Each structure stands twice: as C-alpha cells, then as structure tokens.
Amino acid sequence: MNAPAITPEIVAEHGLKPDEYQLILEILGREPSFTELGIFSVMWSEHCSYKNSKPLLKLLPTEGPDVLQGPGENAGVVALDDRLAVCFKMESHNHPSAVEPFQGAATGVGGILRDIFTMGARPVALVDCLFFGTPGKPSVDRIIGGVVHGIADYGNCVGVPTIAGQVTFSPAFDTNPLVNAMAVGVMRKEDLTLAKARTPGNVVVYYGNATGRDGVHGATFASEELTEETMEQRSAVQVGDPFMGKKILEATLELIYSGSVEAIQDMGAAGLTCSGCEIAGRGRLGMRLELDKVPQRAQNMSAYEMMLSESQERMLAVIPPNRLAEAMAILEKWEVTPAVVGEVTNDGLLTVYHRGGVVAKVPALKISEESPVYRREARQPKDFPTEPWVPGPWAGSLKADQALESLLEDLNIHSKQWIHEQFDTQVQTNTVLGPGAGAAMLRVDGTTKLLGISSGVDPMKVACEPFTGARMAVAEAALNLLCVGAKPLGLTDNLNFGNPEKPEQFWFFRRAVEGIADMARALVIPVTGGNVSLYNESPTGPIWPTPTIGMVGRCESLDHMIRPGFKNPGELVFALGELPTSLAGSLLAFKQGGSSKLPAPLEADGIATFTPRMVALQALLNDLIDARILQSAQDVSEGGLAVALAEQCIFSPATVGFEGTLESYDLATLFGEPGALVVVGIRPEDQERFDEILDRHSEVDYTELGVVTDKPVLQLGDAIAMTVEALQHMRSHRTHI
Amino acid sequence: MSLKVAVITFPGSNCDQDMHRAVKLMGWDLVKLWHSDVLTEPVDLIAVPGGFSYGDYLRCGALARFSRAMESVREHASRGGLVLGVCNGFQILCEAGLLPGALHRNSGLKFRCLWTDLVVKQAGTAFSNAASAGQRLRVPIAHGEGNYFIDNDGLKSLQDNGQVVFEYADNPNGSVASIAGIMNREGNVLGMMPHPERAMETELGGVDGRVIFDSLMGALAKA
User: Which of A53, A214, A221, A603 has the highest count of CB atoms within 10 angstroms of its CB?
Assistant: First the structure.
C-alpha cells in the first residue's frame, strides 16, 4: 500500500491544527509517516488527551484516606474495608448513541465494564444515567427504545445487574441524547492491576475479538487513499459482542488472579494506539508491536487502519516470559484467541512493525502525556438572567393538589419501572436495594459491609446556574447515599457540555467543574476519575450542561441500612435543613414558567449558604446513621417536600399515610427545591436520643413535619388530602412511552 | 444429609455462581462442571443454570445442547437422576429434547426482570414436595425468551400426566397456559423460567425459592 503524502489538507482532515503539527515535527525531529499522523491525531483528540479540559480537571480534589487509585488509570479505586476495594467509573457514549442508539449504548456498557475488570475488579453493578428528548417525537422514541434495549442486551448478557441510574427527559436532548454508563467492581486490594509496563523484555499479548475496520478514525478519507478496498467494507459504527465481553471478563480476572500479568489495558477509543502508548508510557518504557501477528477479521488492512481500529472487546496484556505458558492456557480455556504481538522495550518508543518494515516509531510517553493543552476563554452568556426570578400569575391560583398531581405525572418524577424492568437487576444475587430508590445497595461477598451507589444530576439546575447546579448534583448524590445509610467514599464525574471553543459554552463547563470541586472538597469526597464529553451540540443548539455524578458509599452493616419509605404508623417525621421559601429553580417553576427565558434561576441567598448548609447536614446524618435511629430517610429534590412525602408513603412496605402538622403550606414550602434538605422518620421512643444528636449539630435547621398514620392518606393541612393509592397511580400508571 | 450437586458453566453462563451460592446455602457439596468436560463422579443432582450460553446468538440453548457436559446430563437423566434447569437451563433442556416444547420471545418483545407469583400446580413431585397444591411462591423472573410454547396435543399430554409443576399467577410473558415450569414424564427433569436461586434470602427479597431446594432434599432423602 502506498501511504498518502502528508499535506496540510491531510493534517487538517485529521483534526490537527497547524501548531499541533509543528509540535509533532518537533517531537519526532522529522515529518511523521501517515500511520504516525493517525496515531498523533487520535491520541491528541479531546477524548484521549483532555486537551480542553485538563486545566479545569486539576481543580478537582482527588485525594483522601480511602483512595487507592485516583484519576489517570482506567478507573478509580477506593477502600471498602481493610481487605476489599471498590473500583468505579462513569463514561459517556453520547455521539454513538445519537447515530445508532442500540449499538452505541451497548458498546458504551461494554467499554465501561472493561475499564473495571481491567483493574482486577469483578463488575458487580451497572448504573445508567440517560438524558433523552421529549417522548412522542418518532426520532426521540427511536433513540429511547434503542438505547434502553442496547443497555439491556449487553448488561443482561454479561451478567452484571443494572441497579441504579437516572432517566431525564427534556427537549434540550431531542437530537443529542446523553448516555452515561457507570460500572462498579469489587476487588481484593492485592489484585489491583495497572495499565503500566514495568519490565523490558516482557511479552505483549493480545486477546479478545479480532481487529477489523470498524470505527477507524478519519472516515473523511477517500477509500483509495487508505486501501485498495472500498469504503463500503468499513463499518462506521462499532458493534458490541456481549458474549465475547463476558468471556474476556472471566479470562481477564482469572489471568489477574493467577498473578501472571504485569499490566493490562483494554482497547477502547483509539484501540491499539492508545493502549500501546499508555501501557508503555506510564512505565516510562517502550513497546515493539508486530501488526502481522494481530488477529484480523478483514483482509489487507493497512497499519493505519489497524492502529486506529476501534473494534470492541479487545485486550492487551503484558506478561513475564516465564509466566507466558500459564497465561496462554487461561486465555485458551476461555477461547479468547490470544496472540503474542510484541514486547516491552527500554527505549521509550512505540515501534510498530508491519509487513517487514517499521511503520511508526513514536515516543510513547510524550504522545500520551504531553499533548497540547488549551486554556479556553469563558464568558457568561449575555442573556444570562441576573435579576431575581419572578413566578408567573399562576402562582396566585395554582392549587397544591393539582401541582402535586402534575409533578408526580411528570416524566422526570414518574416511576421508571417500565425501563428498569428491562434490565436484570438481581443477577449475582447481591442486590439488597435495586432501582427506584435514591440509591442502590449491594451486599459484598467477603464482608458484612454493604456498597451503596447513587448517581445523577439535574441539568435544569445547571442551566439555571452552573456553579450551584453542579454543587447540587454532588450534594444530592451524597444525600441519596446517606438516606440509605451509606457514607460517601468517592465520586466519578461525567462532564457533558457543548463546544468548548465557544466562550459561553466553556463558561458553563468551567463554572460546573468549579462547583463540583467546591462541594466535593467541602464534603471530603474525592473525585477518582471521570470522563469529558464536549461538542454536544446539534443544529438546534447545545444540550443543557450536564455534569453527571456517580458516587459510591460504604454502609457498615445491614442493621445500618435504611430502606425506602415510611415504616410504621406513629413514626415522627422531621425535615432536616432549611425549608424552602421560594420556588426559584424548582421543577414546578420550570413547568409553569416565569420571568426569564432560561429555567428559573436559583435564589441568591440559597446559593451563598448552600455549601456550608450541606456540610452541616452531612455531619448530622453521619451521626444519625451511626446511632441507627433513622426509620426512614428521603432526600428532597425534584418536586420538593410534597413529592418526597408522597414517595415515602408510596415506597412504604406497610399501608400507611402521613399527617402534616405545619401551620401553613404555601407552594414554596411544598414544592421549592433549595437543596441540602432531607425528610427523616424516627420512632417516638427514640425522640430523646434524636434530640441529643440534633443539639450537637445546632447549625442544622430542623422542623417537625408530622406523623405517619395508619390511614393511607397524605394530609397536609387544607392544601393536600390525597389517598396513597391515588398518588401511587399518578406516579406509576405509565407502562411505556 | 449432604447432597452432591453438579452445576454446569458454559461460556456465557451468568447465573452459575448464583446457583453455587444456593447450593452452599443448602449445605450441599458443589461440583463445578465446565462445559467441555464430563462428570467423573456420581452426583445427586445436576443444575443447568441461567445465562446466555455461547451468547445465545443462534437460538437460546441451541448450541449448549451439543456440549460435552450435556452428555453427562443425558446419561444422568436416563438413569433417573435429578436435573434442574433454570432460565437458560430450561431453554437448553428443551433444545436437548429432555423436556417437551420450546421457549419463544416474551409476548411483549422485551426482557423482563420482576418478582412473580408462582402457583404450585403439581405438589408431591421431586421439585415441589415441600409445597402444597395451589400454594403461591414469590420467585423472580429475568428473561427475554421465556414464553413457553407447546402445541395443543402436547399441552394436553403435559396436563394429563401432571407434568405442569408451576404456573404464573399473572402471566408475564405470554406462556401457553401460564406455564412457568414443567417436568418430563418420568418426573426427574424439571425446567423453569423463574429463578429459585435468587429467592433464598430474606435480605434479597424473599425465601420462597428454598421450597424447590427443600423439595429436592426431600426427594433424595426418600430415595
């Protein structure tokens, strides 16, 4: 094959700017080969290099006593107890899911699972945060159906339960859906395996699917410039193979448990290029790769295509020569077609051989860690509201019970049972709390501690005010864990934003990252990894800025766990945190409309005090969990206090209702969403201990809200009197879209 | 009494470890049987677990029936040994001809994972002697192809011979006559779509699955 000459046009088609090309010339000291140009272009894409986001990501707190592995590896790792650790990460598959929803979502699940077992952890849970457009439009319905089916198909087949997540509907995601998949694994600490070669002379083993042309970068090239074959033979979308995914999962874990592997890396974005550069670069070493030995499923592939292929379910392992036979036997047993494709070298270079010649020779470390970095301009949008938000005339006439009904029926609050049911939520028989509650809870084999998992973000609030919206996302994920009795250990963030080259979009991005950093630092929850997805824009405009948070927590024992719903009649119910005095930033305000074009901005007072209020609330909840006196606990978020109380009646395992004792119920109290607010229930006999603990946390406001009754009615003064059966129907009558 | 139970693992099995856990919870001895091996020792029960054997790309269970481990299942069953197939295991037993009928895609065309109420149609079998006829058991399902089908003559024969062991109280997948689990004519091979191994512990939502394992214990104690 004759590789095309490197012209400015070819450079531009690779998405490399002229000054980036100059940097390549400096690093190599010569003109790159065509294959090398391809290698640089994918390694320096935003996806692999974080060149637009690196300076911002440095703001995030990444350290803590429980952190065993922070950002920079395939996934973060935190300690669960003295022997076991939790490995977790969230990653987006937005653009593939917009183009081909089923495969886009399926390969997203496959990719994030690989990140987890590559570290030596057995995946124990999947979490999906999905942001869709408005159902009813055929194009949107096609995306929803395809994404849900794709996640189900891959996750169910691999045998990892999908136990938590979020589904948000908004016109902001009509053409650009977000699919953020998180996987969580559990490992023995000694099995922690990094993608870092340490020993020259060790053997590089490839296993999993054969390499094809799927997902090769640079689809803008004319076919004849790439190979003699035609473009029609190249698939634009990667195809997931969950059966191979399951086999490489089991094979990889057996390999790691055998102790015969020094380093391991999956092949995701940028395939062989990325895994080769990173494994060698992290160890300050080099690698010799012989492409002719790589299993191939298409004929006459060029070195360029093989290096850039994104075929799914492929792994690269570094094995000491004296353990090779043992490792190969394990891989053969699982029928994952291993092949020795190279070795680790001490020259710091990734040297690629193909058909008897050297086709690329690049410095592994420089290419993976010294990519260009851009400090983008951030500018607050001109039309961003600065005046206080004023509700429309509806605020004078809207009846509270009508408002509650409209909120329970809102797709964003309504039960997502019709989606969850399509996922296997129980396989591995450790699911103690599945989807539907604020957080999920898993047993962990080998310890009496439990693993809590929460996730989400309210992108409307981030669009309102990105600094506080992002702080609220972190706070809500933490509160959701605390409300099931788990204390946060670490978080992963999936940052979905528009084009960073537009200062207004970059402003949202920057303010949101600052918000995550502020709240994570205040609550002492380290950020152990994440993913950045930029350029989420379509002809109809950018998406709502969406910094999705995934969080894991530790629950000391089953006795510390708090199940959803009120438990018994007689239970005394309190609000912990400040009751709202405004509807600004609430879902009700957004549905009803007000003075500004953007969704209602949050209230200025609440913004200023939010972080300290949340810190104080977390400290109080920690003590209440330790004291084991909470019968029930529920975070107040979308829909406010009224929805939280309705849900606690609906979720109850018993037939109960609630009778409120507040003097008055205005719309702001019932439906405001100030953040840092929870509803808890205690037994009357625990009142004294409860008061003692509250006294120690005098900075937290609290209000007695009422009592759980045996009459299944939600009674809030004259404002609301609705049967729990009616509430339940409003919230769960939809069985499809 | 300790029983010895073999659990098969195919590439793509994903409920094998859940079945291992259930066997251990019962206090039984576990023999792990890899799909390409045959049993080298006598066992009291072979369990064929759920999952997606060989990816189930052709048709659920269609490839697994050709595995070497299934030779052991046939041999064990032909000697009257007990066989329990759950979910994909049920599909495999049908494909292998050890049970009549077939499992189609769910009538709603979607995978469904939820707790279901089973009605014990036939008490007194090796798989249900710890239950009474008409008793309800709460056991979860998790499948995309659990819609049991058999022709009218076959159905009549199943019913006449008392081979329908479990029915759904509220048919979740379109199965003929709400069938959730059937056994062969001899009464030693049972296939069921619901997962009894997932209903063994209170903290996971219920213990009704133990009724099936307790029944197996009872049957073997008598034997």
Answer: A53
Q: Do residues B46 and B73 lie in contact, with contact meaning Cβ atoms separated by under 8 Å? A: yes
Q: Does residue A722 lie within any of the structural domains?
A: yes
Tokens at residue B143, please?
A: 């499948």
CATH number of the domain residue B131 falls in: 3.40.50.880
Rounded Cα gap, residues A516 and A472, in angstroms: 9
Region of residue A291 (left: phi > 0; alpha: psi -120 to 50; beta: else): alpha
Cβ neighbours of A260 (radius 10 Å):
20
Q: Residue B79 belongs to what domain range? A: 4-222
- Across the interface, do A242 and B55 touch by the CB < 8 Å criterion? yes
Of B50, B113, B204, the CB nearest to A432: B204
Edge-first strand order for the sheet with B179-183 is B29-34, B4-9, B45-48, B82-86, B189-192, B179-183, B164-168, B112-120, B136-143
C-alpha to C-alpha distance for A529 and A643, rounded to whole angstroms: 33
pLDDT band at A595 (very low <50, low <70, confident <90, very high): low
Q: How many domains does chain A have?
A: 1
Domain, as residue range, for A601: 564-737
Are B110 and A431 an interchain contact pair (Cβ–Cβ within 8 Å)? no
Q: Is A214 on the interface with B (CB under 8 A)?
A: no
A632 in a structural domain = yes
Amino acid occupying residue B86:
V
Cβ contacts (< 8 Å) between A241 and chain B: which residues?
55
User: What is the average pLDDT across A579-606?
Assistant: 79
Does residue A729 fall inside a structural domain? yes
CB–CB of A243 and B113 under 8 A? no
Q: How many other C-beta atoms can be found within 10 angstroms of the C-beta atom of residue A222? A: 8
Render pLDDT for A203-222 as a digit per residue (tens, 0 to 9). Answer: 999 999 999 988 775 333 32
Quick: pLDDT tens for A411-445. Answer: 999 999 989 999 999 999 999 999 988 999 999 99
Among candidates A207, A201, A195, A202, which has minimal Cα distance to A254? Answer: A207
A vs B: CB pairs below 8 A? 83
CATH number where A614 lies: 3.90.650.10
Q: Which of A194, A363, A211 is nearest to A272 (CA)?
A: A211
Please give the tally of structural domains in chain B. Answer: 1
Judged by CB atoms closer than 8 Å, whether chains meet at B203 and A432 is answered as: yes
Q: Is A426 on the interface with B (CB under 8 A)?
A: yes
| Nearest-angstrom CA–CA distance, B45 and B47 | 6
At residue A631 the predicted structure's pLDDT band, cuts being 50, 70 and 90, is: very high
List the single residue in A250, A427, A430 with the smallest CB-CB distance to B15: A427
For residue A535, the distance in angstroms to the closest alpha carbon of chain B comes to 33
Cβ-contact B182, B165 below 8 angstroms = yes
Is residue A200 a part of any domain in this protein? no
Q: Is the ipTM of this complex over 0.85?
A: yes
Whether B198 sits inside 8 A of A426 (CB atoms) is: yes
Interface test with A, best of B15, B57, B113 (most A CBs within 10 A): B113
Q: Which residue has the tokens 């053997």?
A: A203
Instruction: Report how far residue A176's alpha carbon sits from residue A166's, in angstroms, rounded to the nearest whole number.
Output: 17
